[in-house]
Design goal:
- The complex is a heterodimer.
- By secondary structure, chain A is α+β, with helices and mostly antiparallel strands.
- Helix content of chain A is 26%, strand content 34%.
- Chain A contains 2 helices and 6 strands.
- In chain A, the strands form 2 sheets. A 4-stranded antiparallel beta sheet of chain A has the order 3-4-5-6. In chain A, strands 1-2 form a two-stranded antiparallel sheet.
- The longest helix of chain A is centred in the last third of the chain and has 15 residues.
- Chain B is α/β, with parallel strands linked by helices.
- Chain B is built from 10 helices and 18 strands.
- In chain B, the strands form 3 sheets. In chain B, strands 1, 2, 8, 9, 10, 11, 17 and 18 form an 8-stranded mixed beta sheet that branches. In chain B, strands 5-6-4-13-14-15-12-16 form an 8-stranded mixed beta sheet.
- In chain B, strand 10 and strand 11 form a beta hairpin.
- Chain B is globular and about 65 Å long.
- The chains are: A alpha+beta, B alpha/beta.
- The interface between A and B is medium-sized, with 26 and 27 residues.
Amino acid sequence: MRIKCPYCGERSLDEFAYHGDATVTRPDINAPDAMDQFTAYVYERSNPAGSHRELWYHSAGCHAWLVVTRDTTNHKISAVETAREVALKRTSDTQGDA
Amino acid sequence: MRQQRYSIFSVLREALRGHTGWGPAWRDAEPKSSYDIVIIGGGGHGLATAYYLAKIFGQARIAVLEKGWIGGGNVGRNTTIVRSNYLLPGNIPFYEKAMKLWEGLEQDINYNAMVSQRSVLNLYHSDAQRDAFARRGNAMRMHGVDAELLDQREVREMLPFLNYDNARFPIHGGLLQRRGGTVRHDAVAWGYARAADQRGVDIIQNCEVTGFKIEGGRVVGVETSRGFIGANKIGLSVAGSSSRVAALAGLKLPIESHVLQAFVTEAIKPFIDCVVTFGAGHFYMSQSDKGGLVFGGDLDGYNSYAQRGNMPVIEDVCEGGMALVPRIGRVRLLRHWGGIMDMSMDGSPIIDRTPIEGLYLNAGWCYGGFKATPAAGLCFAHLIATDDAHPVAKHYRMDRFATGRTIDEKGMGPHPNLH
C-alpha cells in the first residue's frame, strides 16, 4: 500500500501516521444532547467493510493532513484529498444549507 | 452418530484396527426452524459459549451458526499464546479465570488441546520499565496470579542466546508468568465443537447471517443464507466482523477492525522453550511443536478487513526479532498471514446485553481473544442464560465508554490502532 500525497507524490506507507475515520465531526457543545453526541463522536464508528474515508498524517514527509478514500477489503485507494480542502468544502456545504 | 470417548484405550484399539473406526468428531447439523438460543459465530468463543450453555446452564435447543467452517476463522489465525499477566482490576480476574479453565480444559472436554504451560517472559530494558513490570507483577500477585520478577542473570540462565548487551536496548531482566504458555488453537475449536455437539448443540456450517428479525424491540430470529431461523435469544460472537453483523441489527459499536500479521519460520531443532516478548519494540516469539518459530508484533494500524497486511510492519517485526535474537537472521520465513481484530476504543472487550432485547454481544477482543476463549465462553453463556453479568466479566459493559469507566491497559485513549 502506497499513498499519493498531493504535495510529495506517491510515498511508502511508513511515512504516514493513521488517525482513523474522517467522517466524524465535532458536535455542538451547547446542544441539549451534547453528552450523547460527544460519546458517539469519540467512541462510535461505522467501521465499514468497503469504502472508508480516513485521516492520514504525512509525518515523515510534508506534515500534511490527508483524507484518503480506501477500500478496507482490499486496501485500494480511490482518492486522496488534503484535509484542508475537505474541511473548506464541508464549511461551504453547511453554509449553503443554512 | 456413535459418540466416542477419547483415551489411551481408544487410540490403541484404533491403532490395531488400522484407524478404521474413528467417526466424525461432530455432526454436520442441518438448521431447524427455531432454537431457544442461537450463537452467531462458530469460532472458539461461540463454540465455548454453546458448550457452557449446555453443560453448566442446562440449556437445550442451541445452535451455533458459522459462515465458513469450524476452525477456519480467527481461532486458527492467532499465535496460540495464553497468559493472565494483566494490570487492571477489570481484567485480571477475568483472564485468570481463563487461565484456570485452560488448566482443566482437556479433561473437561475430553480432547487433547496441547495445553503447554511453558511460561511467558516479558523482558524489560530500562529502570523505568522494571518499575512498571514490578507494579504489574505485584498487581497480579495481589489477585492470586503467579508472577516473578527476574534479573538479567536469571534471564540469561533461561535464554542464553538473547542479545543482552544491545547498546540501545540492553536486557535488564523480565517478568515471568510460569503458568502462561501456548495451546494448540485449532484443537480448541475442534474440542469445543465436539464437546458441544455431544451435549446436543447443532453446529451449522456454511450458514451466514444476513439479517435480524426484530419485533417490538425484541429479537425473534435471524435471516441466513440457509433460510430463516427463529430464536428466543441470540448471542453475537463474531470478533473481527462485529461491526458488520451488529450493523444488520442497527447497532453502531465502539470498535474498529484492524489487521494483525503473524509469521512462522521453517522448522528448526528445539530452540526456545517459552514465550518471550521484546519490551523495547513490539515482538513476541515461541516455537511450535513442529519446530517453526511463531512470532508477531504490532498491528498494521489502519482499518482493514483484508486479512493481509503491508511490508512496513513485516520489516518492523523482523527488525524487532533481529534486535532480540540475532541468531534467527538466517532462518527462513515459511509463511505469514493477517487476521482481523475487533479493536475496541479502550483495548478491552465487551460482554454485555444490547439495546435490543434478547440480543447479546461478545466483541472487542482486540488481539487477546484466543487466550480468553474459555472464560469468554463461560461468561457469555452466563450472561445469556441468566441475563446477568458473570462476576469476573462485570466490567466489560458496553456503556463504560459513555460513563467514563473505560479499561485502558495501555493508557492510549480512544485510538484503537494504538492499543
